[in-house]
Amino acid sequence: MEKIPMTPSGNAALEAELKNLKSVERPAIIEAIASARELGDLKENAEYHSAREKQGFIEGRIKELEGILSLADVIDPAKLSGAIKFGAKVTLVDEDTDEEKTWQIVGEYEANIENGLLNIKSPIARALIGKDEGDSVEVRTPGGVRSYEVLSIEYA
After folding, report:
1. How, if at all, do strands 100-106 and 89-94 pair?
2. CA distance 36 to 51
3. Are residues 67 and 111 in the same domain?
4. pLDDT value of residue 35
5. CA separation for the pair 73, 8 (Å, rounded)
6. What positions does the domain Transcription elongation factor GreA/GreB C-terminal occupy (predicted)?
7. Domain tally for the chain?
8. Alpha-carbon gap, residue 57 to 78, rounded angstroms
């Protein structure tokens, strides 16, 4: 199995979600199923069927998180330096619009573009890997080719 790169904060977030599912959500849904069973006929019991469906979702998510965390390769960006690599916080300027953007390159399970967390497998991240400050990068996106200049790289 291939290791999954992850930052310490991304790993901690997934571990917290797993702990919440196991210690809060799972017991609550078991109680909800028990309460719904007491209402009688299970064939026409919407509460029971809803609770069972939610239980299936919770159990599936627990298994998914356990699998991800078992393959996690936690990489601390604070110990890195130099050209852009996993964990780097990169500030770019769009050469066409002069718009500045800052992204941190993270693993696919912690990526969230709205929060500035860029999936390492995304076209932009793949184009940035190995580049240095001052380099120009062309990225082929669904909206066409975009040109960026790397303004700064920081590892925190």
Report:
1. antiparallel
2. 8
3. no
4. 86
5. 9
6. 82-155
7. 2
8. 36
